[in-house]
Amino acid sequence: MRKVRALIAALAVAGGVLLTGPAALPVQAAPAPVAAAPVTPAVSLAGSWAVNVTFADGSTERGLFAFNKDGVLICTTTGSRQTGIGVWEPGAGNKFRFTFREQAFDDSGNFQFEIHINQQATLLSASSFTASGTGTAYDAGGNVLQSVTTSLSGTRYTYGS
Question: For residue 136, how many other CB atoms are within 10 A of its CB?
């Protein structure tokens, strides 16, 4: 009789019903976890971009940015005349953010300061983005010299454009 009860209990559990004593209780199977789909923009940011930088005082400068698909950013602007090195990462939907650093030197090649730029951006289309954020200059001792607000607009360029 024990073997029969064990077999009935095993079959009942396998069938979604748990038999305990005289009562039978349904067993609900836990739903299988669903993996969230990664949020990525429909268009890749990776590529070469011509940018216009606007400062809070209205002054502007031009630049060239290369967003690599591995998250590395290489850039230069007419104001710094140095190469900026940084990183970028996608956000939700068409949002992304990037940060980079540039060093400034005097005419004799002596270090003056390092600028840390942080931007929050929106990819508007396959060929344009906008961004805004801050640039903060630090002396060799890590002291803040100045912080400015900037906005950028970028236009993708391709071979022949």
Answer: 15
Sign (positive/negative) of CA torsion 61, 68, 129, 50? positive
Contacts 24+ apart (CB under 8 A), 113-118: 113/137, 113/138, 113/139, 113/140, 113/145, 114/138, 115/80, 117/84, 117/86, 117/150
pLDDT tens digit sequence for 109-124:
999 999 999 999 999 9
Amino acid at 46: A
Place of tokens 């559990």: 13
Count the neighbouring beta carbons within 10 Å of the beta carbon of residue 52: 14
Instruction: Say what the pLDDT of residue 147 is.
Output: 97
Strand partners for 63: 51, 77
Asked if 128 contacts 50 with a C-beta cutoff of 8 angstroms, the reply is no
Q: What is the DSSP letter of 71?
A: S
Contact predicate 26/13, CB 8 Å: no
The total of other beta-carbon atoms located within 10 Å of residue 149's CB is 12
pTM of the model: 0.71
The DSSP bridge partners found for residue 90 are: 96
